[in-house]
Design goal:
The complex is a heterodimer of chains A (468) and B (304).
Chain A (H helix, E strand, L loop, with lengths): L5 H17 L3 H17 L5 H21 L4 H35 L21 H16 L9 H9 L12 H8 L7 H33 L8 H33 L16 H7 L2 H12 L9 H19 L3 H20 L7 H20 L3 H13 L7 H4 L1 H22 L1 H9 L2 H15 L13
Chain B lengths: L2 H22 L7 H13 L6 E4 L2 H4 L4 H5 L8 E3 L9 H9 L9 E5 L7 H4 L2 H7 L3 H14 L7 H9 L6 E6 L5 E6 L7 H7 L7 H16 L3 E5 L5 H11 L3 H10 L3 E3 L16 H19 L1
Parallel strand pairs in B: 1-2, 1-3, 3-6, 6-7
Antiparallel strand pairs in B: 4-5
Helix pairs in contact in B: 2-8
Chain lengths: 468, 304
């Protein structure tokens, strides 16, 4: 069930229709969340429910055992890690690891065929497995570190783990933030409802108007069906993909936050206009914030962060980024994507070049760095990625007729860019912000976004991040 | 402005803009909800009829049941159950029979038999299967929600650009989805050689199948025993297309007609030259209406 579908509209109507009755009592509130979230998730394939229940049970029990037997807490943490990362490895990385093994053996002259001997069930990627696995892991680690009291109630735990707005594509919510919120029947004020509606409308707008309307242009370029080529063409394709992936994922996060807010709960910001960043470090504090902070808290800082010298800091940076790349997908392309980010982050840390330039210059340069990395994120394999990078920098002549052929996509791309520019002005020019507020432009913007969702929506596509 | 007022104001403004759009702009060119409604209703609607038409795209684009029933003074009901590349498989023939009103005194099945409809590929009836096997949710969506959703079909900016700033293009492909299962079609300018290319290869390793003919004939016999009148005709097309089909498909007109008649079916002969095609395979809207009227007259005559 995806947010931009009719069935979800029906599901949400049922949920919010019944929510006021169930939320008043503790037991019914928790149970209702779990039941509806399982229906939401099971809609893809009910068999996936066993996985989320199994992986959740491991963490629920591990956390209780960590608290009960503090001397053996390391053992129970390891068990939880094995359970979670094990299921992630089986369902997400089997094929990748098998390919790697085959490649390694081939290097030493031995022919193996691991990739064709993987059990069929392991080739299925359950939706959102990376998200809920990381969320579940953070729970056990926080209990292990003594930062969180484990809940004794299984329903409470599953309400936290499976809460439908964030279940399949985040934000990755921490138990210490959400479990406490769920204990209360929170009264939702009109102002909160208005903010919730704004988040949902803007999120849907980003997804169905911008991201979905760009997909045809991008897909035909990467599948080689467009018949166009040349540097200019590929720069526009990558510009479009940068906005597609941003609007697709940010859109999902906004809808998730809006749904939670309408229920009375608060999910932290997950995207904060990352393409307006003045450094790549800042980019990572604005892009998929819940994942960045997860890696910061559970990988980067425990490994030493930047406090143990420059060389160690760089090593930890590369390790964290490469692991983040692997989290995104089981393919070498994601490692290259992460490698490019690591390289530019390292360069930025060592030279601090970005402090020497004016803002209007820095923002586009940072954006271009992100755009170049996106090439590998979107490419089918490294060879295609290399080919596109070469095209981008070959400065070969382009036939700009593609702007006519893909006129519709160009309109939506321009709209996406214009919105980000407008946001920059609103955030950086007080008079624009005051003018925006004084004229109640948010009311007009919500109305226009709503109309565009209805009359200018693209073909309903699945969210890109579901594959992770 | 208070938050509650903001919520109401944005909703109200959204409704006003939406109404303005519906009033000022023409319907979108691509209307997926309308197309879904058309095919899902055709496949899953519970209506039962006196007359059902079966065949491939030459039927669903070529038969207007409204024009057909004129000859019966509106006393009977008819529906066009043509599907893209449909073949006369056992499943499809049973499907057609199930769409007849079993309690009615007049029960007629009219089959438009093209060479392709008797080939192994056509017997797979992929188009019909696609719609037959959709999930219950999609079925209900097509039957009950699409009639509403079709009013909210999305526009493309290029459509608006054309509508607002440019002259209406002289080239267009018209497809009107009618509630009787007929897609009234036309193309301006027409090109009668357009379909020829694909038909030159469509019969490669896909000739008319003997067992398909036998199956059809057996079914005609069976229907006859059940009191169902069965009519057959070869949907008219261009002379060039007919020549290609006859030479490449292994279709033996005379033999099939003979068997069809022997099985109790009634064959309607048509003069292809009377009708006009827009792509070399399918009939233009006006010709489709003319053909339907002629078929109506022939059926009335045969029943008297």
């Amino acid at each position: 069930m995806i947010f931009n579908s009719l069935i979800f509209l029906f599901f949400a109507a049922v949920f919010f229709g019944l929510w006021p009755f169930f939320k008043k009592r503790n037991t019914s509130r928790w149970s209702f969340i779990v039941l509806m979230s399982f229906i939401f998730y099971g809609w893809w394939d009910w068999r996936f429910l066993f996985l989320i229940i199994g992986s959740g049970l491991i963490d629920y029990i591990s956390a209780l055992l960590i608290q009960k037997h503090p001397k053996k807490r390391r053992l129970f943490l390891v068990l939880s890690l094995i359970g979670n990362l094990g299921s992630l490895s089986v369902f997400k990385y089997s094929l990748f690891f098998a390919n790697v093994l085959d490649d390694v053996f081939q290097l030493i002259g031995v022919t193996t065929n691991f990739q064709n001997n993987i059990p069929e069930f392991a080739l299925i990627l359950p939706v959102g497995i990376s998200f809920y696995t990381f969320q579940s892991l953070s729970y056990t680690i926080d209990v292990y570190r003594g930062r969180l009291q484990p809940t004794k109630n299984l329903i409470h735990f599953f309400a936290y783990l499976s809460m439908f707005p964030q279940l399949v594509a985040g934000p990755i919510v921490r138990a210490k933030d959400l479990l406490k919120q769920l204990t209360q029947d929170r009264v939702v004020s009109h102002i909160q409802k208005w903010h919730a509606i704004k988040l949902m409308v803007y999120g849907l707008f980003q997804k169905v108007v911008i991201a979905d309307n760009l997909s045809f242009f991008i897909d035909s370029a990467f599948e080689g069906k467009s018949g166009f080529d040349g540097s200019g063409y590929w720069w526009i394709v990558m510009l479009a993909f940068s906005f597609q992936i941003y609007c697709d994922f940010s859109g999902y996060s906004l809808i998730a936050r809006g749904l939670a807010k309408y229920m009375g709960y608060h999910f932290k910001l997950n995207f904060n206009h990352p393409y307006l960043s003045k450094s790549l470090k800042e980019f990572w504090s604005r892009w998929h914030i819940s994942l960045s902070t997860w890696f910061r808290d559970y990988v980067y800082i425990p490994l030493g962060g930047s406090k143990k010298g420059v060389a160690r800091g760089v090593l930890v940076l590369w390790t964290t980024m490469l692991l983040s790349g692997l989290w995104h997908g089981a393919n070498y392309t994601f490692l290259v994507w992460a490698g490019i980010h690591s390289f530019f982050l390292m360069l930025e840390r060592l030279t601090k070049w970005n402090y020497k330039l004016a803002t209007p210059l820095i923002i586009p340069i940072i954006f271009i760095q992100a755009l170049l990395a996106w090439v590998y994120f979107r490419a089918a394999d490294i060879f295609q990625g290399n080919e596109i990078i070469l095209k981008l920098f070959s400065f070969s002549p382009s036939n700009f007729n593609f702007a006519d052929v893909y006129f519709d996509s160009m309109v939506f791309l321009s709209l996406g860019i214009l919105i980000e520019i407008a946001v920059w002005f609103r955030k950086n020019r007080t008079n624009v912000a005051v003018w925006y507020k004084r004229n109640q432009l948010d009311v007009i913007m919500v109305s226009i976004a709503l109309v565009m969702i209805i009359f200018f929506r693209g073909e309903g596509k699945q969210f890109i991040y579901f594959q992770f | 402005m208070k938050a509650k007022t903001k919520i109401l104001a944005s909703l109200l403004l959204g409704i006003v803009i939406s109404i303005a759009i519906k009033l000022l702009l023409p319907s979108p060119e691509q209307n997926k909800a309308l197309v879904d409604e058309f095919w899902i209703s055709k496949t899953h609607a519970n209506n039962r009829n006196n007359v059902v038409f079966g065949g491939d795209s030459r039927i669903y684009r070529g038969i207007s049941t409204k024009a057909f029933t004129k000859q019966f003074n509106g006393k009977i009901t008819a529906y066009n159950f043509g599907y893209s590349s449909a073949g006369f498989s056992k499943d499809y023939l049973t499907f057609l029979e199930n769409k007849l009103d079993s309690s009615a005194t007049i029960k007629i099945i009219i089959l438009g038999i093209t060479p392709h409809s008797l080939t192994p590929n056509a017997l797979l009836s992929e188009d019909l299967n696609t719609y037959s096997t959709i999930s219950n949710f999609k079925k209900y969506q097509g039957l009950y929600l699409s009639p509403v959703l079709k009013h909210f079909s999305p526009y493309q900016p290029s459509e608006l650009k054309t509508y607002l700033f440019e002259e209406k293009p002289s080239n267009y492909y018209q497809q009107k989805y009618n509630s009787d299962g007929w897609v009234a079609s036309n193309k301006i300018p027409g090109d009668t050689s357009e379909a020829i290319t694909s038909y030159l290869s469509v019969f490669n390793e896909n000739k008319v199948d003997e067992s398909a003919i036998n199956g059809l004939i057996q079914q005609v016999k069976y229907w006859n025993t059940k009191g169902i009148s069965v009519f057959g005709f070869r949907p008219p097309t261009t002379t060039e297309m007919r020549t290609i089909e006859d030479s490449l498909s292994g279709f033996n007109d005379e033999l099939i007609i003979l068997s069809f008649k022997k099985a109790g079916g009634k064959w309607i002969e048509l003069d292809s030259k009377k009708f006009k095609s827009y792509d070399g395979s399918h009939l233009r809207k006006e010709s489709a209406e003319e053909l339907s009227e002629i078929l109506g007259k022939e059926v009335v005559k045969a029943l008297q």
